[in-house]
Each structure stands twice: as C-alpha cells, then as structure tokens.
Amino acid sequence: MKLWVDADACPGPVRDILLRASQRLRVPVVFVANKRLTLPRSELVSTVQVGAGLDVADQHIATSAQAGDLAVTQDIPLAALLVPKGVVVIDPRGELFSEENISERLSVRNFMQELRDSGVTTGGPSGFSAQDRQQFAAALDRELTRLLKARP
C-alpha cells in the first residue's frame, strides 16, 4: 500500500498529517507535483516532479496508483479515475470519494465549471480551518486502519 498525494494544492497541515501517519504506520507516501517540493528525508517519503501542464500530476497518479492504495486530492476528475480502480480517495477536508458519490460530485463539479465558463461568479472554497484539519486526520486514520486490516 502507498499513499499518493496530489501535492500541487495540498494544504501544509494535510502534508504534515500525512508525513506523521506515514512514519507512524510505516506506509510509503509519494507526493506528486509539477514544482519542486521540500520534504523531510525519510525512506518512506518520496516525491515525483512531473512536467508542467494541465493534469500532468493527475495522470501520473492515475496511472501509478493501484487498488488498495490511498490517494489525497481535491481534484474530482482525478478521484473519478481512481475510485473505480479500487483506490481509496479522500479530499484535504476529509471527504471520502466513493462509488456511491463520485458520479454526483463529478456532475456538480462540471456544472459549476460550465457556470464559471459562462461568466457566472461562483466563489471558491472557504479557508482551510482547524475543523477541516481534524476531519481530514480522522478520515485518514479511519481509512488507513481499514486498509491495513484488509492486507493479507
């Protein structure tokens, strides 16, 4: 099992939680970004710097992640590629993407994109709060525990 992180827009507190979880549970974590990342040295932590371009990091994660891995992303189209592969996907605010909700989440995302493309101002997400950090940590712990118990 590996943890995959769509690191281009990953909040710092989420990165720190992932690094601690990786060390505590001895699970490798891979941060994928199109920019250079500075992370603590560890045999469990690696980075992949992909080329510039739209969705290049997403494509790397989508082709590399395997069933039983866990990915952290706020990119709904990436989640829609990973969920059918059996990858557990959570966003930085702790929401679990699943077979049951990914189609709806993708439809809403596409609708909002159409609104923005037509000139409607839709606003953005609220700032990352302490409650968001707690929800992410709880979701990560819950899903990692479940995945580790399921390993042979």
UniProtKB/TrEMBL annotation:
Pfam families: DUF188. It comes from the Bacteria. InterPro entries: UPF0178 (IPR003791). NCBIfam families: PRK00124.1. Belongs to the UPF0178 family. This is UPF0178 protein MEBOL_007798. It comes from Melittangium boletus DSM 14713.
